[in-house]
Amino acid sequence: MNEIIKTILTEWKEKNLPDIYEREIDLFDYSKLTVPKIIVITGFRRVGKTYIALHLIKKLLKEKTRENIIYLNFEDERIPAKTEFLTQIIPVAKQISKEKIDFLFLDEIQTIPNWSKWLRRIYDNSNIRIFVSGSSSKMSSKEIPTELRGRFLEAKVFPLSFKEFLRFKALKFDVNTIKYSENRKAELLNALNEYLKYGSLPEIVLSEEEKKAEIAISYYQTTVRRDIIERHNIKNEEALKALLRLMLNSTKYSVSKLYNNLKSMNYGIGKTTLQHYLGYIENSYFMFSVPIFSYKIKDQMQYPRKNYFIDNIFLTNVSTKFSKDYGRLYENIVAIELKRRNKDIHYWENSQHHEVDFVVKEGNNIKQLIQVCYNIDDFETKKREARALLKASNELKCKNLLIITENHEKEEIMEWFGTKRKIKIIPIWKWLLE
What we know:
Elements: H1 2-14, E1 38-42, H2 49-60, E2 69-73, H3 83-96, E3 103-107, H4 115-125, E4 129-134, E5 152-156, H5 162-168, H6 182-198, H7 202-206, H8 209-230, H9 237-248, E6 252-253, H10 255-264, H11 271-283, E7 287-290, H12 297-302, E8 305-309, H13 313-317, H14 326-340, E9 344-349, E10 355-362, E11 365-372, H15 379-396, E12 401-405, E13 410-416, E14 419-427, H16 428-432
Parallel strand pairs: 1-4, 1-5, 2-3, 3-4, 11-12, 12-14
Antiparallel strand pairs: 6-8, 7-8, 9-10, 10-11, 13-14
Helix pairs in contact: 1-3
């Protein structure tokens, strides 16, 4: 085991670091914290967690040497899934290093038994600054093991924002002047269409168009197999896959409805197991759900939840229903962006089934109500979206109303049964670039 560690660490010291695109998330400030914390980098498979860590290492190497930094990827097949391996890392590293170890970078460490206890011991008994990453929610603030509570900070990584997407494509636009150039605006809208259709996972963004769907399918299959089935030891694989198909082809779900649908398809699965499966899917960061807005926890638990996916390419290439549904693609993009901006989001619906896509909260305060509508050229469509906003505005006492659409930009005063409000309408590309 010691020889494996020596080999891997020696390879690391000789490894050429790849060229890395700049991302909006920068971990450098974390490396300089006066009171060090374990920095946990979380997110879906292939969103760029490893490259973000390597980008930090590149910055650190301006002041440090490879002797000062250890990097280990626990998806290396040579690394045994044994606690003993962890126990030997620091002693072996000190044997072969001539300098002090200042930084420890650990990728996908959650696959090793007792990883959190080992990490706690290293953190408590050394001055090493620790960065760990993983594509399982075991690493997230919701599920981080008890022994690490109070000792870590979470850095969440999402697929590329639209700003980052444009940077990866070497495209630069001035939002304030774009309206004066039809050619530049057409170029921006073409980029937006690619962003909507093929999503923003870094490797897919940089790949040839004919390869994008193939890569997306491989990501999906790997996530289902490794991050859900194998990680949670699922026996009823076909029921899980059927559940995923149902989720990808729906916008809202309840456990009871899913249970009945699966039962009608002859999949024997109990409601408790079904709830576990939904949790496992969210734990992989592949999907996230949004509850109805209510001050009553019981309502949030009983009413259907809206479901969104971590990247649009899974809707356009795995879903059989939404591949060309721009309304769904717009809404999914907005949901991801709100999560990236760390917003607390719900949806609103009243007894007449008027619905607002996103209620943005801060604590107990409602900060904004957002409707997402691909095209509001049709008067009846516009009236329907505005009416729901006005009803929610009246009930929730919120006057910050927004409609995100394809290409309209203006402010309108609208009224519905005595409720008069100003509604801001903005094109999605401009909202994404704010």
